Amino acid sequence: MNRVYQGVRDRRGNPETYVLESTRRITLHQQLVLTRPIEFDWGYPGRESSNLALALLADALEGGDHPLVDELYHRLDEELVSRLPAEGWQIHQSKIVDWAYGRIHHIPVEPLPLELLGGGITQELN
Question: For residue 16, what are the β-bridge partners?
């Protein structure tokens, strides 16, 4: 349970959410098995932030069929995803899991490393 989720905007402001685990970095879209294209975004309430809340919770709990996913994703959207900073963010998987199980009441959001802010990711992580 050592994944880190990062939300990054490219130079045009388009959002992308990444999953970092060990030395691997892929998009959240690649991490999940999706049957149709789904848009993710953050920083405002709406369909895209709700989609992201659902995807983050399902991935963090390592199963979209986990009973807490349907029960909590709207609350995660309202309390966290729709309020994430537009310029970028990162969240540890363990903090989402702790929140889902009631061990913490607030998920800490960390700023992105400076090299990822204001222009998106320009190179692959090793």
Answer: 8
Task: Please count the structural domains in the chain.
Answer: 1
Q: Which residues of 76-107 are buried (b: 16+ CB within 10 A; e: fewer)?
A: bbeebbbebeeebbbbbbebbbbbbeeeeeeb
Candidates 111, 93, 21, 83; CA nearest to 56 is 93
85 lies in a domain?
A: yes
CA dihedral 13, 3, 91, 79 (to 10 degrees): 100
The string of pLDDT tens digits covering residues 23-78 is: 899 999 888 877 778 999 999 999 999 999 999 999 999 877 788 999 999 999 99
Task: Give the pLDDT band of residue 101 (cuts 50, 70, 90).
Answer: very high
Domain range for 106 is 4-116
